[in-house]
Amino acid sequence: MTTTLEVGLAARRYPIRIGNDLLDEAKNWRDAIRGAHALIVSDNNVAPLYAQRLHDALARAPGAQVQCGTLVLPAGEAHKNLDTVSMVLDALARLGATRDACVLALGGGVVGDIAGFAAACWMRGIDFLQFPTTLLAMVDSSVGGKTGVDHPAGKNLIGAFHQPRAVIADLGTLATLPDRELRAGLAEVVKTACIGDADFFAWLEAHAGALLARDMDALTHAIARCCRFKAGVVERDERETGERALLNFGHTFGHALETEAGYGTLLHGEGVAIGMLLATRLSAQLGMADAADIERLRALLERFDLPTAIPDGVAADALLARMQLDKKNRTGTLRVILWRGIGRAEIAEGADEAAVTSVLEGTRGE
Questions:
Q1: Which of 10, 34, 38, 189 is at a distance of 20 to 30 A from 181, taking alpha carbons?
Q2: Which overall architecture, per CATH, does domain 3-175 show?
Q3: Long-range contacts of 343-346, Cβ-Cβ distance < 8 Å, separation of 24 or more
Q4: From the candidates 244, 281, 298, 322, which is the catalytic residue?
């Protein structure tokens, strides 16, 4: 059974399809490829498992013949940079890709971000499809059109808004996902509940064991609920001029942690888990959040075996400096997402840096 949602934007709509065997069933995505050239972009973890299946499905699909190439990138956040984007652009050049070409992003959030950004750059923008193979990518990064790469100064500082033609989440790919990657994806699931769905948070508390055990019904429910929530936010604020910033709950802290610890040391979801708790503690210090809600969040993150403290050796002043360069800031002031309890987040302009430093210094090695 396939669940289909939609992201509806001013210019067009695109589907999010969630189900089993979708890689092999080209009827779910073939119509989104409009030209004669396609490039599958994957990494050396995912490509050996799924790239040939995707290639074969495209070859079997009815319609005009598509010349399809495959590019395998080195895996990991450490390779999410402009050098890797150049590899994708070089592959498109070798393929002879024209303005109606399509990039097929097959992998987790890193692959999706790189491939989508390269698609945004080639000939000022060509089509791309998202085939997320990690839980984190299925519930978050594949939806909404944020693409980009990291810079030594900070995470995702180089990028573009470029919406996919479709998102195809084949749940079968989660069977090969390492446990640590699954847990990192669950951090983004928790984030969705934290910022706008208290009932979903309670559902997660009740179904944590099923999610960790990879129960398909539980995972399908969680993925669909997150995608539906994010699609609604993106429809109302595609380019993050307002409400969409709420989706960054925990991310200003989390991105700073990822960058300062060294790309690849902390997975994105692990940085977000720590970042969410830091944001809630800052909220409590400012008199906004109740300790009982913070404890519920901490308990749920620990149930999913996610980190909740700043790693040893990461200095508070270094984290603050990273946060000051975060792309969400405005006119030189620190912009963070704060919390008024489960399901209620808000954007805070001009966060007090002394209060932020106090939280950073008090949250480590717990």
A1: 38
A2: 3-Layer(aba) Sandwich (3.40)
A3: 343/193, 343/194, 343/195, 343/196, 343/197, 343/198, 343/199, 343/201, 344/195, 344/196, 344/198, 345/194, 345/195, 345/196, 345/246, 345/249, 346/246
A4: 244
